[in-house]
Amino acid sequence: MGDAPFGIDPAVTSQVAKEIAEVLADGVEVAVVIGGGNLFRGLAASARGMDRATADYMGMLATVINALALQDACEHAGVQTRVLTAIEMRAVAEPFIRRRAVRHLEKGRVVVFAAGTGNPYFTTDTAAALRAMEMRADVILKGTKVDGIYTADPMLDATATKYDTISYLQVLEKQLKVMDATAISLCMDNKLPIVVFNLRKEGNLRRVIMGEPVGTVVQM
Predict the structure, then answer these.
(1) I need a labelling partner for 52 at 20 to 30 A (CA). Which of 58, 92, 115, 210 fits?
(2) What is the CATH number of the domain that holds 200?
(3) Is 198 helix (H, G, I), strand (E, B) or coil?
(4) Which of 73, 102, 137 is the last residue of a domain?
């Protein structure tokens, strides 16, 4: 979305694709779970009276649109990319099959997981945690518009301070809105670390991959 109020900014997708290409060149296997809030927010539509399940399915379809946009940008950057979707739509993407996704990663392709978990009432965060477990990922990198986890929303509270590291339990107890509770609990149960960082700052993705102190680390 970039700085626009709605839609897809090609400059942003190109920048993300460029950063993915850089870490891929370092031999890192990359899988991406993408949201759809720039096009449609199921929870917001539900709050305005739409049936929650219907709204969530519409939100999942929005993630497929974003996934195709990112795939196009990645392939323009010279990166082979496959979109796998939890809702079957063979004309535009492959259905999600875990072993197929693993093979794509082994072949050096970027895999973009779309349509969340395929189920209503589950967020994109939960889909990211679930796919990370299935792919046996080393870490979840949560790219946002802020540079980590704060004591409060830094956009609203000037006194908010940043955590360099924080435990899963602290995130849950303090009700910090970095990811939903289901996703945090899933990562905690499987000891999967999460790094929350600013995706908008050029070069940050590679810095995180290289182990530089970027963002906030959530772990035991």
Answers:
(1) 92
(2) 3.40.1160.10
(3) strand
(4) 137
Domain count, the chain: 2
Residues counted in the chain: 220
Same-domain status, 133 and 211: no
2 and 16 co-located in one domain: yes
Residue 185 belongs to what domain range?
139-220
Walk along the chain (220 residues) and give the pLDDT tens digit of each residue: 888 888 999 999 999 999 999 999 999 999 999 999 999 988 888 888 999 999 999 999 999 999 999 999 999 999 999 999 999 999 999 999 999 999 999 999 999 999 999 999 999 999 999 999 999 999 999 999 889 999 988 888 889 899 999 999 999 999 998 899 999 999 999 999 999 999 999 999 999 999 999 999 999 9
The whole-angstrom separation of Cα 169 and Cα 192 is: 13
Same domain flag for 130 and 217:
no
For residues 146 and 133, state if they share a domain: no
Query: Distance between CA atoms of 175 and 152, rounded to whole angstroms?
Result: 10
142: left (phi over 0), alpha (psi -120 to 50) or beta: beta
Q: Are residues 218 and 172 in the same domain?
A: yes
Say how many C-beta atoms besides its own lie within 10 A of residue 162's C-beta: 14
